[in-house]
Design goal:
single chain, mainly alpha, 115 residues, two-stranded antiparallel ribbon
Amino acid sequence: MNLPVIPDGRYFVVRGRLWRMANPALDPAERSRLQRELMSARSSLGHARRSGDADARRLARSRIDAAKVALGERGPPWWTDGAPDYNRRMAVNTPYRSWFEQLPPDPDPDPSDRP
């Protein structure tokens, strides 16, 4: 899946919502390690959900949050120019509106409709 990334590289767009990109200044080896930890934590969350283990679910969510903060996807913005953070906001409600409105329509806006 090739998601649109805003021109300044701070966000990608899914169904009209901005999601913060990982910090591009991270060392590639560290980024890879953190991405593996994030995937492992997401897998653990799935196992915890299926087993009904609330403690394991809380631990997995904590691991997910820690990995996302370390990647720069959550927590304080990784950019240093003082620009506000629009993470999780609808693109049309941000200064990126005109850029977003020029994108071609999403061919599959609701993945839950897939067979």
